Amino acid sequence: MFDYKQYDGLGLAELIQKREVKPEEVQEMAIQEIEQKNGKLNAVIHRIYDQPKEEDLVQSKGIFAGVPVLTKDISQEIKGQPNSSGSKVLSNFIADQDSEFVRQLRDTGVVILGQTNVPEFALMGITEPVFYGASRNPWNTDYTPGGSSGGSAAAVASGMVPIAGANDGGGSIRIPAAFCGLFGLKPTRGRTPIGPTRGRVWQGASVDHILSRTVRDSAAMLDQYRYDRTSAFIAPPYNGSYLEASQTPISRPLKIAFTTNSPLGSTVDDECKEAVNKTVKLLESMGHHVIEQEASVDGKRLASNYMMLYFAEVAATLTALEDVIGRKVRFQDVEPTTWILSLLGKAVSAEEFLTSLTFWDQAAIQMENFHDDYDLYITPTTAYPPSRIGELDQTQFEKILIRTIGGLGLGGVLKKSGFVDKIAYKSLERTPFTQLANLTGQPAMTLPMHLTKDGLPCGVQVMARRGCEDLLLQLAGQLEITDSWINVKENPNY
User: Fold this and answer.
1) What is the pLDDT of residue 136?
2) CA distance 481 to 412
3) Which of 31, 103, 196, 475 is 20 to 30 A from 263 via CA?
4) What CATH number is associated with residue 470?
5) Locate the Amidase domain: which residues (predicted)?
6) Residue 59 has pLDDT above 60, yes or no
7) Same structural domain, 140 and 89
């Protein structure tokens, strides 16, 4: 019997197409992996094991025909299946149609076996929802796999499936990929489908794609997305093949900027700095020109504007839920932090929000100018390695304050108190690098280039000009074959 876990998505599809393995065998092996490991990792919160007919899988012309995948339990709705967004308030919600991302995912021939765990409404860089419980990192189950695509990352990094759906509104592809030793690409705004009922998510900051163990799976999937007529944004066109780009060496020396400084001015762990410094030395040995240079975007203002979006979107989300559940959302329906964020969103003025969006455009222009001088921009993906499960819980005082303020509905008072700045700093202190690409719309990827002394993965982020995913994939493809690339198959739960 072949070793299912040794193959990526394209590898499994090739075996099925050549009839060297039956598609039903591949599905059975994936299900076995899920059932054996999910009790420990809590990556999959809803199973969908209804199998398509074998002849349908064999005859499918999709590039991933017969490959088992999982989708994320938010924004990736599957008709007739639950989609709770990690919240008890939506525990009974059943989707009435596929999202456009799922439709196009199905067209590649994949078989969807279930949905993965997320923090409530995908709001955290860790996946520890109250309703479903914490997902755990396959490298060490005492630690988080990150978030918000933490369940997907844990599933892929443990060998359950080679590919899992993810989305990224502030680092939710890149953070869990970095923590679990995976490749994670956030595409250019407007590159991937968002409909059919949405034109934008988080004002365009959030995009859907996948998490994968190999660069080529991510590139091949990126090739499959088609124009989405509902999208409010359209990415610069690319007429080539991303898969071919990932397998084509870069033919010229690149000029690359890098920094290990936090844009918030906060501490960056030495392990995260080491990940970048090792990668810089490797790139220099490959003939690229690497210069220590920070982007000119005001990091603290960027963080403030990101939190402005955060607050407003949570408030709008809870208001929109009224049509879904048939009544107003109450304090006890959601986690206390979610409720507080919604109160803060209601306290944001239209002027503040519009001013915030204007800064997004200014930052995008600054980065376009920056990329006139530098092909790529490298930072740590995160400022710290993975945290322990429960480590980032609120203090007892914070919990009491949140419940008190939340129960009284005093969002405006909280906004003026300075506690908001503390929330923002605590929220982004560990992950201050990823939000830039979300607000500017640039593509950004994380590369598994370092293991800490504790044996936990630590990622390196690389950003490019809008529309230049091909350059990122070229670089990733070259680095993937070096000894510096972390082999996810070495983790104890693979």
Assistant:
1) 98
2) 53
3) 475
4) 3.90.1300.10
5) 28-473
6) no
7) yes
Q: Are residues 169 and 225 in the same domain?
A: yes
Q: What are φ and ψ of residue 97, in 5° steps?
A: -160, 160
Q: Are 67 and 81 in contact (CB under 8 A)?
A: no
Q: Which residues pair with 167 in a beta bridge?
A: 208
Question: Looking at the 3D structure of the chain, how many domains does it have?
Answer: 2
Q: Which helix (H) or strand (E) holds 379?
A: strand 376-380
Positions marked catalytic:
72, 148, 172
pLDDT at 398 over 80: no
Residue 65 within a domain: yes
pLDDT tens figures, 460-482: 999 999 999 999 999 999 999 99
Q: Furthest-apart CA pair in the chain: how many Å?
A: 65
Contacts of 35 (CB under 8 A, 6+ apart): none
pTM for this structure? Answer: 0.96
DSSP 202: G
SS3 336: helix
Do 316 and 235 share a structural domain? no
Domain range for residue 82? Answer: 4-251+449-490
Coil vs helix vs strand at 448:
strand
Same domain, 185 and 39: yes
Helix, coil or strand: residue 186: strand
Rounded Cα–Cα distance for residues 316 and 345 (Å)? 8
210 and 82, same structural domain?
A: yes
